[in-house]
Amino acid sequence: MDGFRSGVQTDVIATDFAKAFDKLSHRHLLSLLESLGIHGSFLAWLRSYLVGRQLVVRVKGALSSSFLASSGIPQGSHLGPLCFLIMINSVVNQTIADGIRCLLFADDLKLFVHSNSPLDCESLQASIYRLEDWCTANHLFLNASKCSVVTFHRLSKPIVYNYTLCGSPLRRSDGLVDLGVFCDERLSFSSHIEALASRAMRTLGFLKRNTREFSSVDAILTIYKALVLPTLDYASTIWSPSYGIHKYRLERVQKKFLRYIAYKMGIAYENVDFESLQRRCGLTTLERRRCLNDLVLLYKIVNDVMHCPPLLSRIDFLVPRVASRSPLLFSVPFAATNYDRNRPLARLPRSANLFLTFYPQFDFFFSPLSSLKSLFSNSHVSFQ
């Protein structure tokens, strides 16, 4: 988003490690642990945990001869993920060139650069070469067919650089999935919202097919809240729609569910009052749910319930020059476009200020989170 605001493109290399947990070298991991200051009995204990494991293969009830596993970490264990993270974290210091940034979550590594010229692209390509060398040295392998490059931009003529990985051209994509959210090259999230609405509709269809014989409306509501609503809420702070068509597409899911509830309650189709039925079921509009998610996230960041210094540093507080009784707490950055206005770091403080305008008694630093949720639930204002 910073690239969009400054008018430059952002090239992102999305990588995929082939069987990362199975290919992790015991020797390289133990050597790395020793370089990090782990010695003596603790290192010996970790060595005994990793080295010397006997494996067999079962095929149709027949067992192979046992053999030693020279690589891989036990999956499903507590130490396994920790050992892998220690190993994969070393990629950051050894592969990143100047001006290149990375995002790393488990074995999901993304390299990116804000490209003003082909020189920036060449720096990113240099980091790819370093990544290849790191993989070779540590006996890890990249699945080149699953790696891709995405150029995030809003330019009429972006720079198209032909990146290579393992001697082959990197596949270009019009977006990538990051932790379950599809990010298209213009970060409009239109495709994600459409896919999300379709998935929620399918889940709702599953619910309806399997609750035909249910007589308890409360039971159906519980299933809806457990299966459908989490799908519609997941990561909403990132993709929260600003266009009416997208909001309508999502609200259709809940309206269809309310029609089903009305049928179960014996209410004629033409007599369904969605607002009153929604309140009767203890539900609210999906737009209000997304707004509450925004406020809760901001509260958690500000109060360090969610420890994220990079995000906290991007939130500005409003410090009046003179004594003022204004309840406004956050400084809302100037937005020249609708896209800029709806980005999370502009939308969250704006929603919080509007909430504090209606509820000045709420203290963002000392009031409990339950108080925020209670005040929000009892209001009928859309804080957006």
From TrEMBL:
The cross-references to PROSITE patterns, in alphabetical order and at most eight, read: RT_POL (PS50878)
Instruction: Read off the Pfam families from this record.
Output: RVT_1
Q: By its UniProt entry, which PANTHER family does this protein fall under?
A: REVERSE TRANSCRIPTASE DOMAIN-CONTAINING PROTEIN
Record keyword Manganese present: no
- Name of the featured protein: Putative RNA-directed DNA polymerase from transposon X-element
Occurrences of domain Reverse transcriptase (ranges): 1-165
Extent of the signal sequence: none
Query: Which taxonomic lineage is given here?
Result: Eukaryota, Metazoa, Ecdysozoa, Arthropoda, Hexapoda
| Keywords attached to this entry | Nucleotidyltransferase, RNA-directed DNA polymerase, Transferase
Q: Determine the domain of life of the protein's source.
A: Eukaryota
Q: Which InterPro entries match?
A: DNA/RNA_pol_sf, RT_dom
